[in-house]
Amino acid sequence: MDRLSEAVDASLRLMKSRERFPGEIREALLHKGFTADEANAAVDHLTKKGLLSEARAAEAVLLRRSGRRAVGNARLALDLERRGASAPLPQIEERGRAMEALSGRAGKSANPGQVGRFLVSRGFSDETIRSILEELFPEAFG
Questions:
Q1: How far is CA 58 from the centre of its chain?
Q2: Which partner for 60 in 13, 19, 122, 136 could form a disulfide, CB atoms 3.0-4.6 Å apart?
Q3: Structural domain spans, the chain
Q4: What is the CA radius of gyration of the chain?
Q5: Which CATH number fits domain 3-52: 3.30.70, 1.10.10, 1.20.144, 1.10.260?
Q6: 52-100 pLDDT, tens digit each
Q7: pTM of structure
Q8: What angle do CA 96, 98, 99 make, to 5 degrees?
Q9: Contact 72, 128 (CB under 8 A)
Q10: H helices of the chain, where?
């Protein structure tokens, strides 16, 4: 088996569990001892075959980071950058995702401080957090 085939096989094993960014595959191959040329050739081969797609990988990250696991644009951008995404994250409306993340958390026992800290930890913008706090706790902002 030639080195390109070995690099492609190693890449496919990495891609079994989830969609991957080309940068993630490239870094993993380098870590496994493949040369930069071999890693780039494997990534190019998989991309041309339609098996590796940055757009699909980004969609998968957004899907995993939705609902109660939703995060803000700042955290999404860091996550995508860490995974090797080459294109910047387009600004996506945060408010709905923040409310999804809060589902079940903003009950009667919650206070503005807890909710605010939770949203900050998830990477939501100050503007989004303030808007939600004003809606959920109007007495605190009256």
A1: 7
A2: 19
A3: 3-52, 74-141
A4: 20
A5: 1.10.10
A6: 999 899 888 888 888 888 999 888 888 888 888 877 766 778 999 999 8
A7: 0.73
A8: 65
A9: yes
A10: 3-15, 22-31, 36-48, 54-64, 73-83, 95-102, 112-121, 126-136, 138-141
